[in-house]
Design a protein that fits this description.
Strand order of the largest sheet: 3-2-1-4-6-7-8
Oligomer: single chain
Low-confidence stretches: none
Distance between the termini: 65 Å
Order of helices and strands: EHEHEHEEHEHEHHHEEE
């Protein structure tokens, strides 16, 4: 029995863990073939062990490197014959700390993973979809941190705002080609990234700020991505789809950003589930 994505081919970055992996599972269940791009090779191999290789493939990908992204997109064509959707989802927490303590190399790293990667995904997927001539879907992961203050570290928030701006601009270029370009802005989603460094603590703080009785899951994001990738979302473009259990409607300041915020007591770089080592240092309060 076919699903809403039957015969479609998707590339999903950051697809070996968290929201990306949940989206891979949903797309496969909905009938799509999927190529996973992820820097963490062990997680990628584990994903293939789980999903099999008949309609799923994996390419180790540094999403900030153009040659890697180009090769990832090309694999979709080589393996499955076309490209209907790219989900630019790979992400990290990135650099954090007070603005005066923010590491410049960490800034460059964060913007590369969160913004340059989205640009590269769009750059290499859009011409293929245009040439196919029957539309397509470009989806990128933004964040509620781009919409209101207090929901992310400074540079993370700025990067996700850039994703929204790029999404809206490219949507206009792609509209005549029936290629939809949208962003998903997750709220607090239970993923390995949320656990980084403080298992359970971030979840507890977030839940204490929310009226919705649970945190989000990868399946919540996967459901929205499936809609945007499908023909059901054919007239939706240039939008930021907020998936947050009404959190932004509350005017949230999840992490109490300000002088005394926990996010201001440390500085470093959160490299998420990439397999690369994160760094953090405690700041003196004197």
């Amino acid at each position: 029995m076919g699903g809403r994505l039957e015969n479609k081919v998707a590339v999903i970055t950051g697809g070996a863990s968290g929201m990306g992996r949940a989206t891979v599972a949903r797309f496969l269940a909905d009938g799509a073939s999927v190529v996973i791009g992820d820097l963490n090779e062990a997680n990628g191999k584990a994903a293939l062990d789980e999903f099999g290789t008949e309609r799923c493939d994996f390419v180790r990908t540094d999403v900030a490197e153009e040659n890697d992204v180009a090769a990832l997109v090309a694999r979709g064509i080589e393996r499955f014959g076309r490209l209907d959707c790219i989900f630019n989802n790979a992400g990290v927490g990135g650099v954090f700390g007070p603005i005066g303590e923010t590491d410049t190399d960490g800034y460059d790293y964060t913007m590369a993973v969160l913004v340059r990667s989205v640009f590269l995904g769009m750059k290499h997927a859009a011409p293929i979809m245009q040439a196919q001539g029957d539309g397509g879907s470009i989806i990128s992961t933004a964040s509620i941190a781009a919409i209101t203050g207090g929901n992310g570290a400074h540079i993370y928030s700025a990067a996700k705002a850039a994703v929204i701006g790029l999404t809206r601009s490219v949507a206009l270029e792609m509209a005549p080609h029936r290629i939809r370009v949208n962003a998903i802005a997750p709220g607090v989603i239970e993923t390995p990234l949320l656990d980084a460094g403080r298992p359970g603590k971030m979840q507890a703080q977030a839940q204490s700020k929310m009226l919705w009785p649970r945190l989000g899951t990868g399946d919540d994001i996967a459901a929205m991505a499936s809609f945007l990738a499908s023909d059901d979302g054919e007239f939706v473009s240039g939008q930021v789809m907020v998936v947050d259990g009404a959190l932004t409607a509350q005017g949230s300041n999840l992490w109490d950003i300000g002088e005394n915020s926990p996010l201001m007591r440390n500085a470093g770089v959160n490299r998420g589930s990439t397999g690369q080592e994160s760094q953090a240092r405690r700041l003196s309060r004197d």
